[in-house]
Amino acid sequence: MTDDSKYTRQTVTQIHTWVPDKLFSLRVTRDDAYTFLPGQFARVGLPGADDPHGPPTLWRAYSMVSAPHESGLEFYSIVVPDGLFSPRMAQLRPGDALYVEKTPYGFLTLERFAPGGDLWLLASGTGLSAYLSLLRDPATWRAYRRIILVHGVRTVAELAYREEIESWGARPELAEVFAADPQKLIYLPIATREALPGMPQERLTTLIADGRLEQLAGLPLDPEQAKIMLCGNPDMLADARKLLGERGFKPGRRGIPGNLAVENYW
């Protein structure tokens, strides 16, 4: 017997393929009672392959790409070859069901930081998801002097949401923000296997270590001014956390705001 009080059945409304057989996003309906903070993740479920019309038995964590004020929920995913979940999620079509636990999770939220200073959002791959939720929320733009969004991928095709990110400066709801500071957002797309104009083909951790990330952003990684979020694969996070720790960045503790927040996205 299943306890369906822990989750709701939602309906897929849209699928977008970024890289065939590799990267996709999907939108689903949202339960009226479901609330979350930008940067949090949901646990989403599917029935087992042996009982496709049965109750959900497979669950995975996905950060919300959507902002809290949006009517639906959006998720961004890589297809894990031979995985039990993501290949089936990628095959969903509008009208199909996706189950969502009623409780959101995660602490990659701006509540971790004191307001003010510069907000650095460093992501590898699909770790970008949580930052999109943050940046779709107008309150984020008002809380910090500058926002630096760094997205590390292998190929240019994997720079999902790039068009949306580059259009934020023209959004009516952000007109006042960008009128006051046209450089409010510094977007650094980094592809390690393809050349992008003005961008190095390097790992994010290499750019942190040799100082080039600060040169590209035109801002210092100063623990007195910078608040940094890290989201991506565990190897990148471990290396970046060590490098930043050596420079004085540390997570908050016991109610004391820090200047570093980290979440695995793997």
TrEMBL record:
Belongs to the ferredoxin--NADP reductase type 1 family. Gene3D superfamilies: Nucleotide-binding domain of ferredoxin-NADP reductase (FNR) module, Translation factors. InterPro entries: FAD-bd_FR_type (IPR017927), FNR_bac (IPR033892), FNR_nucleotide-bd (IPR039261), FNR_type-1 (IPR051930), OxRdtase_FAD/NAD-bd (IPR001433), Riboflavin_synthase-like_b-brl (IPR017938). One of its GO terms (biological process) is cellular response to oxidative stress. Its EC number is 1.18.1.2. This is ferredoxin--NADP(+) reductase. It catalyses: 2 reduced [2Fe-2S]-[ferredoxin] + NADP(+) + H(+) = 2 oxidized [2Fe-2S]-[ferredoxin] + NADPH. Residues 5-111 form the FAD-binding FR-type domain. SUPFAM superfamilies: Ferredoxin reductase-like, C-terminal NADP-linked domain, Riboflavin synthase domain-like. Keywords: Nucleotide-binding, Oxidoreductase. GO terms for molecular function: ferredoxin-NADP+ reductase activity; nucleotide binding.
